[in-house]
């Protein structure tokens, strides 16, 4: 299984979290222990902070897309969350109308407020509903459709990609952000506890991700060969590129706040499944008064790599 950075402690998929189906819509229960339910509205501040921190990565990805797509008239952000990336699309493509699609009305309200605040409100719209069905409500097919770490929250990813492709205009581009590398915050050896804490957290996150996928209604096991899946959806000219976020030590206050929130969420979710010694290390990292904690130590950083896969709908 390809790694899914920021699952379950944040997402979009960095910000584009994909509040779309199943556990993400079961009454918004927060995931604890072995649970995989996510309260997206509760996570809104964390999703926004994460996407804002990751903006340099998104800007590089959107610049690349700008070279692939010529003056799109309509851009659709599938699983948009609070709209940080949606607004980056509005900035990058000033001639385009942007539609943010999500299953969470509170997050879409944040997206609308952000667009208005940044001056994009006159060409920014929202569409609430479960995916992929909500895309059927679009008035026009999309010239560019973006699914930033939302696809893996849909049980049948192959069928979802086919539905996405159906709502593309001929010659339109579908771009999905899935996979990449595990995000790193900490040196391998912290000076206390066993070295390699983040590698062990990765293993727990992979187990959580597999359970999350299995819990989705209509879940289908699917090898994560995104180029093949895009081709199966009838799209052509597949391309793949990864983008790096490198925020070196010493971390900024904003980066430290994000690291702290991420580690706290991991501790909350894994509960008793976390090795007691590792839990003690995480507790110490989260202690704002501890010199070895995230808020005080000089060697914390953010290093991430996210992968974008694109394909084009043929002009018949």
Largest sheet: 7 strands, mixed
CA(first)-CA(last) distance: 35 Å
Write down the Rg: 19 Å
Q: List the total number of helices.
A: 9
Count of extended strands: 7
Please provide the ordered H/E string of secondary-structure elements: HHEHEHEEHEHHEHHE
What does this structure look like?
35% of the residues lie in helices and 20% in strands. The protein is globular, with a radius of gyration of 19 Å. The longest helix is centred in the middle third of the chain and has 19 residues, at 197-215. 45% of the residues are buried. Strands 3-2-1-4-5-7-6 form a 7-stranded mixed β-sheet, with helices on both faces. The model is unreliable at 1-34 (pLDDT under 50). The protein has one domain (22-246, 304-310): Vaccinia Virus protein VP39 (Rossmann fold, 3-Layer(aba) Sandwich). It has helices at 44-53, 55-68, 84-92, 105-118, 157-166, 197-215, 226-232, 253-270, 276-286; strands spanning 74-78, 97-102, 124-128, 142-148, 168-184, 236-247, 302-312. The chain has 316 residues and is of the alpha/beta class. β2 (97-102), α4 (105-118) and β3 form a beta-alpha-beta unit.
Describe the secondary-structure layout.
Layout (H helix, E strand, L loop, with lengths): L43 H10 L1 H14 L5 E5 L5 H9 L4 E6 L2 H14 L5 E5 L13 E7 L8 H10 L1 E17 L12 H19 L10 H7 L3 E12 L5 H18 L5 H11 L15 E11 L4
Helix pairs in contact: 1-8, 2-3, 3-4, 8-9
